[in-house]
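Predict structure. Chain length: 900.
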Amino acid sequence: MNLLHELIAARVDAWRAEGYPCADSPAIAEILSHAVDDERTGHLRYLRKAQFRALEVYWFLRLVEGTPRIPDLYARCFPKKAERREALGLSAKVFEDADYDFDALFARIRADNAFVRANHLESLRETLTLDYPSYILALAMGAGKTILIGAIVATEFAMAQEYPDGPFVQNALIFAPGKTIIESLREISDIPFSKLLPPRFEKLFTASLKLTFTRDGDKELSGVIDGSAYNLIVTNTEKIRIQKPTVRGNGQQFRLLANTKAEEAEEIANLRLQKIASLPHLAVFSDEAHHTYGQKLLGKWEKDPDSGEPVFKEQGIKKVRRTVDYLAQETNLVVVVNTTGTPYFERQPLRDVVVWYGLGEGIQDGVLKEVAGNIKVFSLDDEHGSLLVSKIVADFIDTYWETRLPDGSPARLALYFPTVAARDELRTAIESTLAQRAIAPAVLLAVDAKSAETVKAEFYRLAHDPSAQHRIVLLVNMGTEGWNCPSLFACGLVRRLTGSNNFVLQAATRCLRQVPGNATPARIYVSRENEAILERQLVETYGTTLSDLNATQAERLEKDIRLHKPDLPPLSIKKRVLRFRRRADSSGVSPLVFQRPDTEAPLVGRMDTWSIVEVGGRGQLTRIDTEALHAEPDALDLYSAAGGLAANYHLPMSELLAALRAVYGAGATIPVHHLDALSQQIETQRREYEEDWQEVEIALALVKPDGFQRHTDADGAPFYTARISFEKSREHLYRMADSFPNQGFARDKSFHYEGYNFDSEPEAAYLEQALNVIAQYAGNIEGVWFTGGLTDPSKTDLYAEYLGEDGRWHRYTPDFVILRKDGKCLVVEIKSEQHRADIAADLARADTGQPPRSREGRKAVAMRQLTDINPEQLTYRVIFAGTVLPAEALEETRRFVAQD
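Prediction complete.
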């Protein structure tokens, strides 16, 4: 384990197993635990596995490790010098030359160009020169890097609101190169933050969030207030970078002011960047950072024309880093996060990578389509181009022509050509192949950078419109990064492709984007000229090979379930609810005593004083002073302030009035921004509460449509879906209504959503046998529904709560509910035979007032307590089974259904 991200992953596993302990900020455990909606299966509420793993790593570094710089992190994780040297990718010779002294070696790497160049240490030099924490989260395409950034920002802001004086981010800047990627970042505005944050955090976060996308012409980010908090600013790099001023109008006047020629003026931050620099507690996110981690990672070596020595010309990431360096100097920069698709630079691991989720893992987890056994390499020369495209098109038609996505989109093929001339030359062969199959040439769409806007519109339509007619797309310098077309099942690389930014790799992998519910693998067609290029770019970008990719199979599947019965009747039952009340005996309670809060009025902006100073013979603008500007504080009279606090805390008005007069004086006014601090003092002094369990009448919803994603069909009617994920080995347990003998009856009496994702064969068998029983007494029964697959409280109210060994409350959702037309319910749980003894013992303990000891016993006791409160309406039964359902398993079900 000599890679940093591998060691961190192991430590995060241990942290997770312990429940995310953090003494100074325990709320992080509540936030991270909220991401899991089913403890039994580990199913995530919204994030994908890769996203959640990266979020865990991020918070581990922030809270457990204290947000260290990368060199310090290596020192902690690899205390032995030999291990650290190996982890940093340093040769033994280099370390020996530095007399085994890391400080001396790092100093040389920072200063010695020839040494860095000779030993290929450019990326390590960049790591060592940063004065702030900066991490790379490397996740392959399709893993959802934009959603991950949104999750980090949301959890940071929530923690900042929970701990106002803590070391948490209160403002965030997200930037990416180019307009295409910033458009994809707009997905952030659609994130359902209620699925990322527990309710008590989400409401305040949503009310406070100020989301800004930079607009052309808005030079000063007019929607952002200097010094304010909870701003999320999304921009492309060009709109905020440090850049030289453009001289317009009276250029001579500018030269006189700057005391130098305009072309020699020091680069300065533009107005947007200055506004961002005014924001405190800032985090910077660089999305799709591989654009600057490519062949121009930091720059390139060039020979100095005067000395003849190699010098390093800054490019790419270095220019971006100079912008971030400026922000680090002007405000308290908390952390920098770079998201990218690769942990490598020219086959060398980047040492800043703290998370790596590769292409193979994406395929295994069902995030990407499989290509196992589906990479076809053609050993044909250019002169046989017509034969090549004919074979590709014929194979695609034979394999995919009848393939459809769950939304009805037909499978599509993209063919990539090096030039328009090559495409036009080979188009005749493609049309001939279609004619032989009686397919009209209208299915073809030829697109290149110079195509008419109407043609490009048809091209972009393919990504989202199932009715788009084009099935085979002929591309020249189009259809790579930024084109996410889920219905693309095959890509063909025709003739030798050239271009920067891994064009061959981007083209070949466009067809890997997966859609829940699809089980058909993708296919890649490669000409001999492109095979070597693709192999090299796979190794350099993902650290994998064509043979690895060709052998990787999916280990997880994603499915979209669809809600069929959003209006199931609720269950009207009684439930015990824990509330807190003030103790009746208040004798001995001391009178309230306030301390005047030492808090400033809200900051509304600042006034900066700038000067032109001479540095190295050149004029440079420098900020020499900053004055905070506070709003004139709003105030309340004593009676209004006392009345508000008394109402909030159910305290006598006279007591509040006396306490306020004692600290502010009679007739004084109370600044509104003092009220929060005064409230905290009341809570500290009057924590005189006790538990109060009450029985209340509730309408328990078996299914809640608001917890699903709402869509509209072609007729404008709404329908609801949710995404689930499970291991591919359990695919046989995923059942649809049409997998039952009488599918019409199954859909009528069950399948309130489709499909059901069972945990075991006995569960699936129970539903099938229960439907057979119900068929004999159909007039008695509303339905039998598998409820064990929905555990998210936003989707169902059917759960019981129990106190776990960790001292926290957990939810338990039973497997089945059978509802009779007279309103009575049978609640059924299918359990493994191995839990029989523990559950029986804990139920017996509960009868004598003793607490349960086992996890499964706690669940059973909690559910029985709910049914005991409602004996006329609810009956709870646990059925124990081995690998098959026992013959007597449905005896109780039969009696209940028959109303015996």
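Summary: The chain has a mean pLDDT of 84.
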